[in-house]
Amino acid sequence: MPHSLYEPQFLLRIIKRKKRQLAEIEEDLLRLPLDHPTRLRWLERRLNLQQGIPALEAEYARRTGDSKSLHNERQIPSEKESVRAAKLSETALTQHQEMPLFRWEDVDHSLVSLRLTELAEEMRNQIEADERRIQFENRGNLNSNTVPSLVLEMKQNRADDMARRVYEIYSDVWKTQGHAKSAAFVRAVYLHGIVPVLRGRTGGIASDFAMFATRTSFPIDIGKAHLQSHRLKMLRLESRWHRRIEIEAKELEHFERTATLAQQEIQRRNVATKEAPMGVTAEGSRQIPSGRNLQRIHEQRGVLSTGTPGRRPRLDRSFVECAGTLWQKATSDGHSVPLDRLRPIASELDAAGYLPPSKYLEAKYAMDLKAFNSRNSNSKLGPIKTWSELTSRGDKDHLRGMRRLLSRCAGKLDGGHQLSGN
């Protein structure tokens, strides 16, 4: 009887082969320069493998879990192979449940298309207005090369702005759908959203300049030099966007791995707590104290103790002690803390290495600061990465978030408990 492609042993071979291909691609990408022309093709191949392997693992786990007829037809595996297959199935199912597989088709492309249409019209109006402004400001300039050079530079800057807006649109739509950003998501947005926009603008700008050169009898040699410079600048812009996306993707990968490990640790502790006999501690068959004795034991545990078993604190003990102590000193006279007294606290936090501020602020203020940094990542103002920058900007919402965090740290320091998750 011929074997089916979807029998577990064949699925397992496919999974192993694809994992080997993914490892080889990862090694090649580490050696490949960022501006290499084939890097984009390898990134697309890696994304396809990263999306396909979890689905195959989940299918393999399902097949080995409920396919009795297939089990009778294939050779009975050894004990070690059975244990290994069971672990693989459990791992695949756990990863599939905890980290849902990202698929590009899950994005609401109809909503994205509507917002991209509005963005295209807005950008076209802005480019036309900027082009008229450049022509008006240089109406008396006898150098015929000035206006074309300035128009090209303006359109290249607008292409960068458009790529940023496209990324924000995809992120907002994905968030509106109730999902969180992941490394696979940001890489997919780069491949399917940002790269087509940048390359489309590269061709569009070059076509507009060629039409302008033909219409005005612009010198051919100078026109070719402009077009070559334009293509090189757009390639560098695409490389910059690739670095930005890769940085964010790597950070998201670390965050996902940390969150998974934390969740597994919490589950392990909960399982250990449920399996422990009632009234028995790890030291022996000692009765759990109650009443005042239990309260005294909780008071002796200090800052690290939390009210909920297994709940991980959001902020480190060292940060709570440092921030709380600085706030207590600043408010020792009983008055409010103005901006000039916040700046020394910011310098102390920067020197201690508690960066960036968005990592420590409470949820609402952290989201506001991240949105501010995203909007100003490419502007002259720049993002806020230190506490000193936060105080120097003087934004009342950011300062309110900083005061609230310091006040809560001081309160928790006095109360003997550390801040938990928001």
**CA-based shape:** flat
Order of helices and strands: HHHHHHHHHHHHHH
The end-to-end span amounts to: 59 Å
> Mean pLDDT, rounded to whole units?
78
Name the structural class.
Answer: mainly alpha
Low-confidence stretches: 66-99, 278-308, 417-422
Number of distinct beta strands: 0
Our Rg estimate from Cα atoms comes to 29 Å
Question: Would you mind describing this structure in some detail?
Answer:
The structure is a single chain. The protein is mostly helical. The protein has three domains: 8-98, no CATH class; 105-269, no CATH class; 292-415, no CATH class. Helices cover 72% and strands 0% of the residues. The chain is built from 14 helices and no strands. Helix 5 (109-137) packs antiparallel against helix 6 (146-176) and helix 10 packs antiparallel against helix 11. It is flat, with a radius of gyration of 29 Å. The termini are far apart.
